Amino acid sequence: MARTPPEGRGPVRYGPPAPEPGLPVLPELADVLAAAAGHAVGEVIGGGPGLREAACGYWQRRGLRSSPHDVVAAPGAQPLLFALIGAYDGDVLMPRPCPASWTPQARLLGKPAYHVPTPAECGGVPDPYALLETVRRVRAEGGMPRLLLLSVADDPTATVAPPETLREACEAAVGEGLHIVSDETWRDTLHRPHDTVLLSPAEMCPTDVTVFSDLSGSLTPASWPVAVARFPPTEQGAARRARTLDFLTALGAQVAGPVAAAAAHALGEPEHVRTRSERAAALHARVAAAAHRAVLTSGALARPPQAGRHLYADLGPLRARLAERGVSDSMELEDYLTARLGAPAPGGHRFGDELGALRVRLATGPLLGSTPQERLESLASPTPLELPHVAGALTILATAFDELR
User: pTM to 2 decimals?
Assistant: First the structure.
């Protein structure tokens, strides 16, 4: 989405950030996809029985009992979330910051989107008191807040919401009659899985939460788009599932047959898939921790990354030095750091933050190497930070931030 720019400026960029390099495709998944490539009959809208049953098994192993009748699949998180938002009447609330696609999708559907501040300890979940105040204000202005989007393992902040914070936010939302859509794309990418407690809102409020997940978070390549959603096992949940299917049908949002076969295999979490997921999470954790140290050393701020492949940095303390370089807002910061790092560094305005806030999301993917061979070497190495291509990328990052001290 764009707004009227300041004089002499192009449109403010709110669209999705540029794609990030990923790890090479796991050969086992490539073999499954290739074996299904000759099937002439495609998946039904919402996903075939095999894919939906595999999703149920995935959630069952995480404590969420599911039935295939409560599940839908779509070709990626964007069309699925679009359909989920469309299936609910009323206005949409979401934390600030939030994933880049959330606000534009709500606006495309003609729904007002209200951002709620997050607590100091994490992103992805609104501060409970700020949520109640926002609901009160929106209703006083004639609005109808009905839907809350949140993410317990968050993009862009890479944080995990503490259970007590999550419970308070969910209780506040449900108490005000809001339905919760929980983005759990990054739940399997915890940097310290034995030390971090992650709970799903569906465990706390089972009849008031729809869960969805983009499988590219930890199971499938981003180039094979597929996402799944689990609705509450209630009459209202069944009605919302049917409405979601209506939207997916109107969009022609059908998962490709070969991709569905590979996704169902990945959701079963056989040994090689599970091992790849765990090793990838550990690799991104090491690199994210090193990037976090570089950011803090410069005097910038960032919450410690706990999950995913990103780091959300606040360069507000470096505003004076950035001003000397012609940087006064997050769009200019995006341009400056993207050029300086040689990799995408999307500004906070893409994630619902104010344009004047000097915040930026840094990705760990570009730090793993510039070729598939280098990224595989990073994955296999017991000491990835010592590899020349990783050490060199981290040095460029550290130097770019050191220059702003």
Answer: 0.93
Q: Quick one: which of 390, 153, 384 has its CA closest to 282?
A: 384
Q: Which of 124, 144, 126, 125 is nearest to 135 (CA)?
A: 144
Tell me which residues of the chain have a pLDDT lower than 50: 1-10
Kindly report, residue by residue over 40-49, the tens digit of the pLDDT: 788 999 999 9
314 CB burial (10 A radius; 0-12, 13-18, 19+): middle
How does pLDDT run across 104-120, given as a tens digit for each residue?
999 999 999 999 999 99
**CA atoms within 13 Å, Cβ hemisphere of 309:** 22
DSSP-assigned beta bridge partners for residue 314: 301, 359
Find out whether 266 and 220 touch, Cβ atoms under 8 Å. Answer: yes
Q: Rounded to an integer, what distance in angstroms lies between the CA atom of residue 48 and that of residue 43?
A: 6
CB atoms within 10 A of CB 61: 11
DSSP per residue, 249-285: HHHT----HHHHHHHHHHHT--HHHHHHHHHHHHHHH
Count of residues for the chain? 405
